[in-house]
Amino acid sequence: KEVENRIKNLPPEWRDIETPVGKAVGPVEVCEVNHHAYVDAMNDSFIASLRPQVFVVQVWNARHLNLNVMQSMLSQGLYTGKREIFLTHIHEITRSYLGEASINRLTGTGGHVVIKVAAGGKQYKVILLTTDDESFRIKSVHGPYICR
């Protein structure tokens, strides 16, 4: 509620910074999600302008990864094509809030996220490393994703 009140008090041109930024940036391969995918971030115009194949959400709070934001990131109405969402963490309360059907649409839900770009820059992989200890063991490897 506090964030909503602050946004309402901003001049109109500052209420939506993502739309002009998205238009200026244009298409990307990977998007590190704005404001932890919180309710005030990742508007549809921004997502449609960037059209990433991979979203990375840095999560440390149970309120991160808002369901509406997740649905927008996965929406084929904003742009077509496969896209995947990786979370650095997921709280049990968030898991409960999102529901199993939504959780199953996420690609990775916990770990350090490493983007490994192949020589020449034409493809990349997403590697999740364990956060259980300091070993940085590989939990999973995703890709290769072909750069567009």
Describe the structure concisely for a colleague:
By secondary structure, the chain is of the alpha/beta class.
Description:
It is a single chain. This protein has 148 residues and is α/β, with parallel strands linked by helices. It contains 7 helices and 7 strands, in the order αααβαβαβααββββ. The protein has helices at 2-8, 12-15, 18-25, 44-50, 67-74, 92-98, 100-103, and strands at residues 30-32, 54-57, 84-87, 108-109, 112-117, 123-129, 138-146. It has a 4-stranded parallel β-sheet, with no helix packed on it. It has a 3-stranded antiparallel β-sheet with strand order 5-6-7, with no helix packed on it. Strand 2 (54-57), helix 5 (67-74) and strand 3 (84-87) form a beta-alpha-beta unit. Helix 3 packs parallel to helix 4. The protein is globular and about 45 Å long. It starts with a helix and ends with a strand. 24% of the residues are buried. The model has no long low-confidence stretch (mean pLDDT 93).
Task: Record the SSE blueprint.
Elements: H1 2-8, H2 12-15, H3 18-25, E1 30-32, H4 44-50, E2 54-57, H5 67-74, E3 84-87, H6 92-98, H7 100-103, E4 108-109, E5 112-117, E6 123-129, E7 138-146
Helix pairs in contact: 3-4
**Major sheet:** 4 strands, parallel
Distance between the termini: 39 Å
Mean pLDDT, nearest integer? 93
How many helix segments?
Answer: 7
Rg result: 16 Å
Shape label: globular
Strand content bin: 15-25%
Keywords, separated by commas or semicolons:
148 residues, alpha/beta, four-stranded parallel beta sheet, three-stranded antiparallel beta sheet, 7 helices, 30% helix, 24% strand
